[in-house]
From TrEMBL, chains A, B:
NCBIfam families: pyrF_sub2. It catalyses: orotidine 5'-phosphate + H(+) = UMP + CO2. GO terms for molecular function: orotidine-5'-phosphate decarboxylase activity. This is Orotidine-5'-phosphate decarboxylase. Pathway: Pyrimidine metabolism; UMP biosynthesis via de novo pathway; UMP from orotate: step 2/2. Its EC number is 4.1.1.23. The gene is pyrF.
Amino acid sequence: MKLESLISEIHKKKSFLCIGLDVDLNKIPAHLLDTDDPIFQFNKAIINATHHLAVAYKPNIAFYEAYGLKGWKSLEKTIGYLNEHHPEIFTIADAKRGDIGNTSAMYANAFLKEMNFDSITVAPYMGKDSVEPFLAVEGKHTILLGLTSNEGAFDFQTKKIGDSELYKEVLLTSRGWKHSDRLMYVVGATKAEYLADIRKIIPESFLLIPGVGAQGGSLSEVCKYGMTENIGLLVNSSRGILYASKGKDFADAAAEAATVLQLEMKKLMQKK
Amino acid sequence: MKLESLISEIHKKKSFLCIGLDVDLNKIPAHLLDTDDPIFQFNKAIINATHHLAVAYKPNIAFYEAYGLKGWKSLEKTIGYLNEHHPEIFTIADAKRGDIGNTSAMYANAFLKEMNFDSITVAPYMGKDSVEPFLAVEGKHTILLGLTSNEGAFDFQTKKIGDSELYKEVLLTSRGWKHSDRLMYVVGATKAEYLADIRKIIPESFLLIPGVGAQGGSLSEVCKYGMTENIGLLVNSSRGILYASKGKDFADAAAEAATVLQLEMKKLMQKK
């Protein structure tokens, strides 16, 4: 998907909501467990109920690999369903991959070509030649981990490198990589105050913001420091939407929870 | 597998060879492509021909994910075959995963429990709480990326942090994590001279050394700087063994290539 299509979708829906499809069989309504593919049935119901409110869906691949072969089948069916019924919605394989060049190329092939995700999250530790194979895929986007939302972010990401910090070095260095116009970045919302600094280094890039909701973080703070002319934000919510109800009304409850966020986003977009 | 079992296997076989099961369908003998599961058939033949020479096998997960559902089936069959027929051999899921805590726990579950690998490679960028869920699994090992063998290693890993460098900070910091006795480290053999420094920080830990062979790097240099009383090394070779021949004799050729390495290792162990 081209960036312009994502931006136009954001304006059309007045939303920059990304819904994390992180399905945990221990948390979904009991009646779905009797179906042939509970994970896919759950996702399909969530997508059907929220696709007018969200501009992106983000399955975290761990939640599918945890169920082995069955999980992969659910993942393939989920991305297949999105590509068939909602090609206008941006899809993110939250995989956090990264390996030596030819190996990264195989991951890029699996997620961006075979499964046809619009984007994939990638870890930066192994540097340029581990990321460029993802960037090489035309019409796709690579979402590089910048500053994550977990406690461990302070172990290495915020370590001083000269006058800078590691995560800033990652942002800065990655701008020089081939096809860097296809880069987006993961930035944790628990550190909204960092966003002003980040915008100095990558003023235009789209940021994927996890950690609004269950992981903490305020939407208005994120917008204050991170929003650009093109909005430039995808704010993710997973558990707060997926598990708004554990009953048979789970999809309606998810839509309600998503609506609350979308309406807040609409207001914040109008302020801009 | 307990560390003592690995060490005793190393002494018994006079080998610290790890064989990377990175199967590329474009490179395996043509006659296997007609079988029901070419990847598994190839792996099985390689394992049958080399299990007396190798102390570890390491499938790189990208090579399996690249083939989607079929690839996962091949991976499950391969690790199943190893666990059934060669439980004495150390198995490594080369996955380079790493995510926020509960998500890392799902990866740990998939690879270390469900598939029952002895270990998994993990990326350090997200810090302590992204790695500890792997370390929490009893009887298993977490192999943390330290200094990788690719060019991109110089983008961030060798960046100066005060008087130290990022990869050294990773080694040092990780020693303080819970169950750090279950840690091993990936260290690229293309930089054998770094090993002396690395051994000052982690004198006893096992190192997984990729990059002998196709990626360059000398075995004797690695041993000179990296070998400990308990050997403390797993040296990986993939392509040089797997694709020693493209004909029907591929398994014999693989055994020959592995024997050359094993004999060199035997000599280097005797020197110690």
